[in-house]
Specification:
Helix 3 runs antiparallel to helix 16, helix 16 packs antiparallel against helix 17 and helix 17 runs antiparallel to helix 18. The protein is mostly helical. It contains 27 helices and four strands.
């Protein structure tokens, strides 16, 4: 390692950077109600804030980090800025702020990590092995969970049934088995490069074992888009390598390639043939295509996409605001879907469009869509151009980038990779890698010079091409005032990162406790299975837990939604109404209109409840078949109310 890495400061920066890539994917915080997604954002904020403070210290030491000024940084800045600007017209401004803030932290973390890694080959190799280890642990855990659920059925006790087949029981730090497959597909070519280029036997063994574990986990998770993306990325990468090196490259590695093919075939055969060790006898193939989820997966996506297209068409220029897809989705009604019996049972709330270009257009309008497409086009063009040069060590790294974005482009058509912390961070980091790995020859040919100029309490350091164009820009203090201001700004930003995500995580931990207390109180209500009468102490515990959540994070709408149910169940209808209204600032789901209507009726305000009942039945048409008389009466009254309203010209 370099001299800077031999002291504690340099080691700390490198350790934090490695943790961003290896620890975050494996991190799961069990005390939180959302133990998968929110905790990862919180950990990224903690690590990014720490890196930001150390970057300021690095500047005080006289070697400041620099910000690259190129089309990649410009596109990233435009992406973050447009997300921030969309708050102005967002349907739910607080949700837009949350989303834009996350993009800001992720972008900053990616740029700080690139500064730490620099062009040091040993640091990049260390990062590669760290991500290989993360992939191996993730794959092994998924395989183990699948086997345990199959061979020890009692281990399934207490697992909430949210998926209709065996994948319901696979839990890793990603939660959804499709997200496990996505991560393994995006990182697959890292151990592949170690396997093809490594010269030591232990490198071959470890990298081959990781790839075999990943292949087994991806088979078990049975994610079509994940496997499809990896297959396409592999084909593209193999063609590029063959054109670059020729067939001689493969002849020299024929034995390794044959061994790998045999191992992959063995993995597939293990799960597709009938034998006692197969957790999916007689064949995973039969179990997968015989699952209701296979049919439901297609129907639900088509339903979400058609609704998302309607949303994008309604707000085609500016969109509904960053992070607002889930907020607006329930209110978007596509008439043809409401009358189609095939989709009648799929009118549900969803958090994501399961298609990133569509979600980007719906949330950020045509500008956001063009920015996203420009990012993909720019990185593909740059990678393809640079791969034509024989740049030694950096050729396989660029090849990893090409495989990454090829797989990512496929994944983004079927899932929500840019709504997840790990894949979003990797996307932003890999997006900047082509510029960060600019060859020494290019830097020399451009005549890159470093210029330093003092201005006030700071000195600005710039890398200039031909004394005309800036390539990198950094700042360092030259006196005490500059040092205090620089450290103060970095410290305040870091604290804001930690406080924002820390309180959300703490509130979510309280939400888990509140749900448990709520469920225990509900189980003791009179008339339920002849249990004991209601215990006032249990009610007070649940009430106190809910109130403590909102004292920490007033915008925890999932907790507030559950709290409205709690208040209705305790017949506190007057208290429930303002809580429902507050919840609707971040959640516009059909059941909230039903709850408000129930509260209004209980308070004797039946006429005020009619619009809410009408909205509920319109958004949730399958409820009409369950309450035909009530629905018919409500819809008739709503129609009369509409006719009785004075028109503008009357």
């Amino acid at each position: 390692m370099s001299k800077l890495d031999r002291d504690g400061f340099g080691f700390a920066r490198l350790a934090l950077t490695i943790a961003l890539f290896s620890l975050v994917p494996l991190f799961r915080f069990l005390p939180a109600y959302d133990s998968f997604i929110g905790p990862k954002y919180a950990l990224i904020s903690v690590l990014t804030g720490a890196l930001l403070v150390l970057s300021a210290v690095q500047s005080l030491r006289g070697r400041p980090d620099t910000l690259p000024l190129n089309r990649f940084t410009a596109l990233t800045a435009a992406w973050v800025a447009w997300n921030l600007v969309s708050i102005l017209w967002a349907k739910s401004p607080t949700m837009a702020w949350d989303d834009a803030r996350q993009w800001l932290i992720l972008s900053l973390g990616a740029l700080l990590a690139l500064n730490v890694l620099g062009r040091d080959r040993r640091r990049w190799i260390l990062l590669g092995w760290a991500m290989t280890a993360a992939a191996a642990v993730t794959a092994l855990w998924a395989i183990g969970q699948d086997a345990i659920a199959a061979w020890i059925p009692e281990s399934r006790a207490g697992v909430a049934i949210s998926l209709s087949d065996w994948r319901n029981y696979i839990f890793t730090s990603f939660g959804n088995p499709g997200h496990v497959s996505d991560f393994l597909a995006l990182t697959f070519w890292i151990p592949m490069m170690f396997y093809l280029y490594g010269r030591q036997s232990w490198v071959w063994v470890v990298s081959a074992a990781t790839m075999v574990l990943s292949a087994a986990a991806m088979t078990v998770c049975w994610s079509v888009h994940s496997n499809g993306g990896l297959i396409l990325a592999s084909l593209v990468s193999l063609v590029v390598m063959t054109r670059h090196y020729g067939l001689g490259f493969w002849r020299r590695r024929a034995r390794r390639v044959v061994v790998l093919i045999v191992l992959f075939a063995g993995v597939v055969g293990f799960y597709l043939t009938d034998h006692p060790a197969n957790p999916h006898r007689p064949s995973l193939w039969e179990e997968a295509f015989g699952s209701e989820r296979w049919r439901d997966g297609g129907i639900t996506r088509v339903y979400i996409w058609r609704t998302g297209l309607q949303m994008a068409a309604d707000q085609r220029f500016l969109g509904v605001g960053a992070g607002n897809f889930q907020y607006v989705f329930p209110s978007v009604v596509v008439p043809s879907l409401g009358t189609d019996p095939e989709y009648l049972n799929y009118h549900r709330f969803t958090r994501d469009a399961h298609n990133e270009p569509l979600q980007t257009w719906a949330e950020l309008g045509i500008v956001g869509f063009l920015l996203l497409m420009s990012m993909f086009a720019t990185v593909f063009w740059r990678l393809w151009t640079d791969l034509k040069r024989d740049d030694g060590f950096f050729f396989p790294m660029r090849l990893i980038g090409l495989a990454f974005f090829t797989a990512f482009a496929v994944h983004s058509q079927m899932t929500f990779s840019l709504q997840l912390p790990v894949t979003s961070f990797l996307f932003l980091f890999m997006f900047h890698v082509p510029a960060a790995l600019e060859s020494r020859r290019c830097r020399y040919e451009m005549g890159l010079l470093r210029v330093e100029n003092e201005w006030g309490p700071w000195a600005f350091i710039a890398d200039v091409v031909g004394m005309r164009r800036l390539r990198n820009l950094g700042v360092k203090p030259v006196n005490t005032l500059g040092a205090v201001v620089l450290m103060g700004v970095a410290g305040l930003m870091a604290v804001s990162f930690w406080w924002g995500d820390g309180r959300r995580l703490l509130a979510d931990t309280r939400y888990r406790d509140a749900r448990e207390a709520h469920d225990r109180w509900r189980a003791m209500r009179p008339g339920q299975n002849n249990q004991t009468p209601i215990s006032e102490s249990f009610r007070l515990v649940a009430l106190k837990q809910y109130e403590s959540i909102f004292a920490i994070d007033a915008n925890h709408h999932d907790a507030r939604s559950a709290f409205t149910t709690f208040l209705i169940e305790t017949e506190e209808y007057a208290d429930a109404l303002p809580q429902i209204d507050k919840t609707m600032e971040r959640l516009d789901a059909a059941e909230l209109y039903q709850r408000r209507a129930l509260c209004l009726e209980a308070l004797g305000r039946e006429s005020e409840a009619i619009p809410d009942w009408a909205t509920y039945y319109m958004r949730f048409p399958q409820a009409i078949s369950l309450n035909r008389d009530h629905a018919a009466s409500i819809l008739e009254k709503a129609e009369k109310l509409e006719r009785s309203k004075p028109t503008a010209g009357r």
